[in-house]
Every structure is written in C-alpha cells, then in structure tokens.
Amino acid sequence: MLEKIKDILYDLSDFLLMLVIVAVIIFSISSIMSSTFGIDLQNNASTNIAKEKIAKVDKKQPEEKATDVDKSKNDEEKTDVDKPKDDEENKDKKDNSTEAQTNTDEENKDNTDSTKTDKKEEQTNKSSTTDNSTTNGENNEVSFTINPGDTPLKVCKDLKAKNIISDTSKFLNLLVKKKLDTKLRIGTVKLRQNMSDEEVLKVMFK
C-alpha cells in the first residue's frame, strides 16, 4: 500500500511540474506577443495622431496666410489714410514751435536789453558814489593820536585802519628810509583820509 501511495504522489508531483512548466511557457509567450503587438498598436496610434495634426496645420496655414494678407491690406489703407493727418499735425506743430521760438527770442532780446540798461545804470551809480566818497573822504579830517610806547608798525596799522594811508608796509619802509621811525612824536595830529604818504609825513613831522 505504501509503495502505491508513493507512486501516486510521484505521479502527481510530475503532473504538477508539467502544469507549472506549461503555465510558465504560456505566460512568457503571451507577454511577448502582447508587448510586440502593443508597441505596434501604440506606434500606429501615434502615427495616426501625428497625421491628423499635420493635416490640421496644413488646413490652418492657407487660412492664416489669407488673414495676414487681409491685415496687411488694411494696415496699408490705414497708413494711407493717416498720412495726410500726420502731415497736417506735423505742420501745425512746426508752426507752433517756430512761433514759440520767435517769442522766446524776442523775450530774450528784451531781457538782454533790460539787463544791459540795468548794468549801465549800476555802473553810473557806482561811479557817482565812488566819486562822492572820494571827494568826501579827501575832505574828512581825522584826529590821529600817537600814544607813549607805540611802535612804528602800530602807528602804521592805526593810520591804515583810519584810511589815512593805503599801505602799511609801504609807509613803514618810507619811515625807515627817511630815518623817521625813531623820531615819532607823542600827541594828536589832524590828518585827512586818503592822503599821500609824503603829506602824512609833513604833517606828523612839522
């Protein structure tokens, strides 16, 4: 009995192995077939889609060309209509600009003339004021005092501060040249503004 059971089991195992092998073969064949046919179907579908797109593009191109031609014609007509308007506007602008330039030129001329006259009046006023100041300065008497301990340089600076002399160093050199820097007299002297150096010396060293 045991040997029969073993024989049956061996037979079953062999049968199962045969079934598994057959199943594997069938599965591999089916997968290969599906992959190859699937790729072909996909390629066919993609080619069909591409053909449809190309056909649509070919249909659109003549329509777009026609629309472009119509647009170009319309643009040319618009430009032809707008050209005279633009020319008229440019003429008006040029006329206005020339008028504005002439007005500005006239205003500038008037301003320059007025400035010139103002400058002339200022110059005349300045000359008159300087003449008056010089005449008044020459006639103005100034009392000048030399205090004890005053140096020749200090005396020259004081004379310059009161507008009696024009240059301190020049007057000091004149004092040294004539050897009067050591002979300064203490006291008060009446002098005039804008005197010459020689006149100041004559009055100070009488």
Q: What does this protein structure show overall?
A:
There is one protein chain. By secondary structure, this protein is mainly alpha-helical. It has two domains: 1-139, no CATH class; 140-204, 2-Layer Sandwich (Dna Ligase, domain 1). It is built from four helices and two strands, in the order αβααβα. The protein has helices spanning 2-139, 152-161, 168-177, 197-204; strands at residues 141-146, 187-192. It has a two-stranded antiparallel ribbon with strand order 1-2. Helix 2 crosses helix 3. The chain is elongated. It starts with a helix and ends with a helix.
Q: Helix proportion of residues, in percent?
A: over 70%
| Low-pLDDT segments, ≥5 res | 127-138
Q: Count of DSSP E strands?
A: 2
Instruction: Assess the beta-strand content as a share of residues.
Output: 5-15%
Structural class category: mainly alpha
Give the neighbour order of strands across the main sheet. 1-2
Q: What's the Cα radius of gyration? A: 62 Å
Q: What shape does the CA trace take?
A: elongated
Mean pLDDT: 75
Q: H/E element string?
A: HEHHEH
Distance between the termini: 179 Å
Short description:
By secondary structure, this protein is mainly alpha-helical. Helix content is 81%, strand content 6%. The longest helix is centred in the middle third of the chain and has 138 residues, at 2-139.
Topology (SSEs and partners):
Blueprint: H1 2-139, E1 141-146, H2 152-161, H3 168-177, E2 187-192, H4 197-204
Antiparallel strand pairs: 1-2
